[in-house]
Specification:
Blueprint (H helix, E strand, L loop, with lengths): L1 H11 L6 H10 L6 H11 L4 H54 L1
Helix pairs in contact: 1-2
Length: 104
């Protein structure tokens, strides 16, 4: 995971993602770099448009968050409606009791 983070850091800094730069970042974090993993990562990232991956990942993560927020908001609205209905019923009962006392 730290190899990916190192490459993301380089990408966000607009620096070239090279074996040497990834090793330097890992060394700065006191992580011993595995040469094979570093070479494989650099080779794999040469074929990838990182900006496109970030955009697609952002969209796929945002959809469930929006859905959850909408569900929570709907639940709160329904709860408030129920509370209003309960209060209305209480008022009607109180009014009925008052009329009963007048004619009772």
């Amino acid at each position: 995971m730290e190899y990916i983070y190192a490459s993301m850091l380089l990408h966000s800094a607009r620096k070239p993602i090279t074996e040497e730069s990834i090793k330097n970042i890992l060394k700065a974090a006191d992580i011993e770099a595995d040469d094979i993993k570093v070479k494989a990562l650099v080779a794999a990232l040469k074929e990838v448009n990182i900006d496109d991956i970030i955009k697609s990942a952002t969209l796929s993560v945002a959809a469930p968050v929006v859905t959850q927020a909408t569900t929570e908001a709907t639940t709160r609205v329904e709860e408030k409606k129920e509370e209003k209905e309960e209060k209305k019923e209480e008022v009607e009962e109180t009014m009925a009791e008052g009329l009963g006392a007048l004619f009772g």
